[in-house]
TrEMBL record:
<dbReference type="Pfam" id="PF13549">
    <property type="entry name" value="ATP-grasp_5"/>
</dbReference>
<dbReference type="InterPro" id="IPR000182">
    <property type="entry name" value="GNAT_dom"/>
</dbReference>
<protein>
    <submittedName>
        <fullName>Acyl-CoA synthetase (NDP forming)</fullName>
    </submittedName>
</protein>
<dbReference type="Pfam" id="PF13302">
    <property type="entry name" value="Acetyltransf_3"/>
</dbReference>
<dbReference type="Pfam" id="PF13607">
    <property type="entry name" value="Succ_CoA_lig"/>
</dbReference>
<dbReference type="GO" id="GO:0005524">
    <property type="term" value="F:ATP binding"/>
</dbReference>
<dbReference type="InterPro" id="IPR032875">
    <property type="entry name" value="Succ_CoA_lig_flav_dom"/>
</dbReference>
<dbReference type="InterPro" id="IPR016102">
    <property type="entry name" value="Succinyl-CoA_synth-like"/>
</dbReference>
<dbReference type="InterPro" id="IPR003781">
    <property type="entry name" value="CoA-bd"/>
</dbReference>
<dbReference type="Pfam" id="PF13380">
    <property type="entry name" value="CoA_binding_2"/>
</dbReference>
<dbReference type="GO" id="GO:0016747">
    <property type="term" value="F:acyltransferase activity, transferring groups other than amino-acyl groups"/>
</dbReference>
<dbReference type="InterPro" id="IPR013815">
    <property type="entry name" value="ATP_grasp_subdomain_1"/>
</dbReference>
<dbReference type="InterPro" id="IPR036291">
    <property type="entry name" value="NAD(P)-bd_dom_sf"/>
</dbReference>
<feature type="domain" description="N-acetyltransferase">
    <location>
        <begin position="32"/>
        <end position="186"/>
    </location>
</feature>
<dbReference type="InterPro" id="IPR016181">
    <property type="entry name" value="Acyl_CoA_acyltransferase"/>
</dbReference>
């Protein structure tokens, strides 16, 4: 049996940065573990160095260096993790690569790598560089330098292809490399492209194995082990199939060759499907590692869904498998399906094998997977691949989206989500995928923010609307029911995307036409001309004539056909006419045809395998379902067509000064605190946000003096939080022109609110009158799950009660900011409502971008409110702010450096 990898958790040296530990995916799709080096790694380092070739050693030290001295080992393993740091990559109990940096100046460090020859070409150098750069940035280092021999082309490539702007000089026979390590758009793009390729390949290893072993196979009918063997066999798996059961001496199980252990299988095994008791799974993982298995599907239960003990077992399962290069689907999973003819894999507990199709499906729920597959079979909706992740200890929807992004067999992606383990990465990956293929998502638990049993995720405190906003930002098609999920999938899998919102209706039922029109009005779709209402006994010729007009009408972007047959008619002739009229059209066509809920045989364009090819016309139970699906497809098409969006450049932002300010503030307030007025203005100034000064006053005389200093035309404002926006109390007295006005205002407001008993906490402030405008609020919150989230809305109690807010995750593109302003229901107030002047929308968008940049740069800004902003015809004035800075105990999950989360 393979040994368990060494554990370092409880014995870290002082200052050990545990947050830098990461499971990573290599270029070939295998996994490894990356972590900071420790003094306990001395033997690991010596063994690693002994396996490295003499040439690689020469490239590292510029001289023959056959072995490390005790002094070398001590120096290389004993670091301070600040000025000197090193990261190693391990697989199982072996080190396969190491990278280190050593500070050479206040903000400069020299970086070097050594990769075992057998593992060169797997992307280790690139991964180490990314993670070293992240660690160095956190310690105030902004620039890396390196010395490389001219013929060490692999290392030169690591630097030049990282996406940084690299400067090279040739000096004394050595190439001097130097570059800033601040993330750039280019370096982000490089990392994300590498991430997509490696994670996609890691999933391909699971979905297209050449050989599969069922561990826990059984001869007894009704058992999980027996069902898995039967479904793999009966599903027509084209590869080699093996059954493994330690309790049997049989040569075969269900006609499949059987072995007592996986090590006894006289063949390579790519994928292991595990169905043993939970307490046995860890030993199975070690056996699979020794056998060289590439991936695991664990259907066994008894993990996080049973409580603390199960959570520990699940965490250990994922870490153990990854440490030996394997990805895990599950535990408590239904399994995986790949309908590609060259694979034909049904490694699930469902006997139903859907037909080949263009729709891919990720489902977190194992229990829901069986009825979902059954519904797809009933509808005749073909699949390309299906994955039920169960407790999702490792492989998640993010991984599958990375795979489907480049999978030519998949044209539409469906997601059933119970939780989001890494919302920031989900948003980024899904947005990239949606730009290429439609993604339809159903998120359960939105109203409760509940986390299902078995889902080990951070619990968000944000309102459910955040999920909807994130879906819109990423271009996802959000739906509310599984029926709606498949309705939209039927349309997208068979018909083109609409080019606009105008819909033509051809119908022989007035009642159903009215239903369609009502649904269109509610969905924001428009009617193209008058509906073509035919008589109930309309013939095929009547439908043909009406459809000819519709398809020739440039006003119509989509067509809905409603056919309710007269007595003793099967509609075959009408179907032929509809299919012929739609053939070759670039307008999507939907139908309510004989109340069927699939792609009827009469409206089907058969593909090579007898399924429904593109151009087939889907049918829905009633026009409401058809129009609802069409509306979802229409808005997605609009999202795809929108002009290119970009993250704006803000040249006046001083990120370094802001970071230094935050670091110094936390030295003074190690537990965090709310910033005072001066500190708030200072921090916001680094991001080009100015605040109209407000001056605290304790008496009428002081208020008069401050107003005089400001030249009057001021306001007097109560500052206590409980008085803000009270509909029954006026907390602001405006238009104070002289001393008499101020004394009158003071008398009235102190009678209402009283005077602060603590002089250090002023209850009133005097502030210069701002130009007239519409009051809005811009906020940002650092959520433990989502990371930074920016919020926009109009000020007012009614807005708060209705939750009329828009949400987005930074970084904000120009499109994101524009949509945030326009999607709140009170937005008409900004555009000239009932004769008022329109406000400066660009000023709002500018503030949104600046707040987005600030909260993205500074994790420690856990809450920021521009809680009173007046937006006028020209510009916006920030009147009141609140900011809290605190140490971030749980770092963001989607870091610039690639890692599995």
């Amino acid at each position: 049996m393979t040994q368990q990898p060494a554990q370092y958790g409880p014995h870290h040296p002082a200052g050990y940065p545990a947050e830098l530990e990461a499971d990573v995916v290599l270029r070939d799709g295998a996994t490894a573990h990356l972590r900071p080096i420790t003094p306990d790694d001395a033997d690991l380092l010596v063994a690693f160095y002994a396996r490295v070739s003499e040439q690689s050693k020469y490239y590292r030290f510029f001289a023959p260096y056959p072995q490390l001295s005790d002094r070398d080992v001590a120096r290389f393993t004993q670091v301070d993790y600040h000025d000197r740091s090193a990261l190693i990559v391990t697989v199982g109990n072996e080190m396969i690569g190491v990278g280190r940096y050593e500070r050479t100046g206040p903000r400069t460090a020299e970086v070097a790598f050594l990769i075992e020859d057998a593992h060169q070409g797997r992307g280790l150098g690139q991964l180490l560089l990314e993670h070293l750069a992240q660690a160095a940035r956190e310690n105030g280092i902004t620039r890396f330098v390196a010395e490389v021999l001219p013929d060490n082309r692999k290392m030169i490539t690591v630097f030049t292809e990282a996406g940084y702007k690299v400067m090279r000089e040739f000096e004394d026979g050595v190439i001097m490399v130097e570059f800033d390590i601040a993330p750039t758009d280019t370096s982000f793009g490089v990392m994300q492209a590498r991430e997509q390729r490696s994670e996609a390949l890691s999933i391909a290893r699971l979905l297209a194995p050449s050989s599969v072993a069922v561990i826990g196979a059984s001869r007894r009918e009704g058992t999980i082990g027996n069902a898995l063997v039967r479904n793999l066999r009966d599903g027509g798996f084209t590869g080699r199939l093996y059954a493994v059961n330690t309790d049997t001496e049989a040569d075969e199980i269900e006609g499949v060759p059987a072995y007592p252990t996986i090590s006894d299988v006289d063949d390579t095994v790519d994928l292991a499907v595990v169905a043993v008791r939970a307490e046995m799974v860890a030993d199975v993982v070690l056996d699979c590692a020794a056998k060289g298995v590439r991936g695991l599907v664990v259907v066994s239960s008894g993990f996080a869904e049973i409580g603390d003990e199960g959570r520990k077992r699940q965490r250990y399962l994922a870490g153990l498998a990854r440490s030996y290069g394997m990805r895990v689907i599950g535990p408590n999973a239904l399994g995986v399906i790949n309908t590609a003819p060259e694979v034909s894999l049904n490694a699930t507990l469902s006997p139903l094998m859907p037909s080949r199709g263009r729709v891919a499906f990720f489902c977190q729920s194992g229990a829901l997977g069986v009825p979902i597959l059954a519904d797809m079979v009933r509808r005749g909706l073909g699949l390309s691949s299906f994955v039920s992740a169960g407790n999702r200890a490792d492989v998640s929807g993010n991984d599958l989206m990375q795979f489907w992004y480049s999978d030519e067999s998949t044209e539409v992606v469906l997601l059933y989500l119970e939780s989001l383990g890494n919302p920031r990465k989900f948003s980024r990956v899904s947005r990239r995928l949606a730009g290429r293929k439609p993604v339809v998502a159903l998120k359960s638990g939105r109203s409760t923010q509940g986390v299902p049993l078995g889902q080990m995720v951070r619990r968000s405190q944000l309102p459910p609307a955040t999920i909807d906003s994130m879906f819109r930002q990423s271009g996802l098609i959000g739906v509310d029911t599984t029926g709606e999920l498949f309705d939209v999938a039927q349309l997208l899998a068979h018909q083109p995307l609409p080019k606009g919102r105008r819909v033509a209706i051809v119908s022989n039922s007035d009642a159903l036409t009215l239903l369609a029109l009502d649904t269109m009005a509610g969905c924001g779709l428009d009617v193209a001309g008058e509906p073509r209402n035919l008589s109930p006994d309309a013939t095929a010729e009547d439908f043909g004539a009406a459809l000819s007009e519709v398809f020739a009408d440039d006003r119509a972007h989509s067509v809905v056909v409603i056919y309710t047959p007269p007595v003793q008619s099967n509609g075959a002739e009408v179907a032929q006419v509809v299919a012929a009229a739609a053939a070759g059209s670039d307008k999507p066509v939907l139908s309510t045809f004989l109340a069927s809920r699939s792609v009827p045989e009469e409206l089907r364009v058969p593909d090579a395998e007898g399924g429904a090819a593109r151009g087939s016309i889907p049918s829905f139970l009633n026009p409401q379902y058809a129009v609802g699906a069409l509306a979802k497809a229409t808005y997605y098409a609009e999202w795809r067509r929108r002009s290119d969006s970009r993250i704006p450049d803000l040249p006046d932002v001083d990120t370094r000064a802001a970071e230094d300010f935050v670091a110094e503030y936390l030295q003074r307030h190690p537990n965090g605190a709310d910033l005072n007025d001066a500190d708030r203005q200072m921090l916001l100034s680094f991001y080009g946000i100015s605040v109209l000064p407000a001056f605290p006053v304790q008496s009428a005389d002081e208020a008069v003096q401050r107003a005089a200093d400001l030249g009057f035309e001021v306001i007097l404002k109560a500052t206590a939080e409980q008085w803000r926006m009270r509909p029954d109390l006026a907390d602001i007295w405006r238009h104070i022109h002289d001393e008499d006005d101020m004394r009158g205002a003071w008398a009235e407001m102190t009678q209402t609110f009283g005077v602060a008993s603590d002089p250090s906490r002023a209850q009133f402030v005097v502030q210069k009158m701002a130009p007239p405008g519409v009051p809005v609020v811009v906020s940002a919150l650092e959520d433990v799950s989502f990371g930074p989230v920016v919020t926009f809305g109009l000020s007012g109690v009614a807005t708060d009660l209705l939750g009329d807010r828009s949400y987005r995750m930074p970084p904000l593109t120009t499109r994101d900011a524009a949509e945030m302003v326009r999607e709140v229901r009170a937005a008409p107030l900004l555009y000239g409502y009932r004769g008022t002047d329109p406000v400066d929308i660009s000023a709002i968008e500018n503030l949104l971008h600046r707040v987005s940049r600030l909260t993205l740069d500074l994790e420690e800004v856990v809450k920021l409110d521009l809680r009173s902003v007046l937006v006028g015809a020209q510009g916006a004035t920030v009147l009141d702010t609140a900011i809290r800075i605190a140490p971030n105990e749980k770092p963001r999950q989607d870091t610039p450096a690639r890692r599995l989360t």
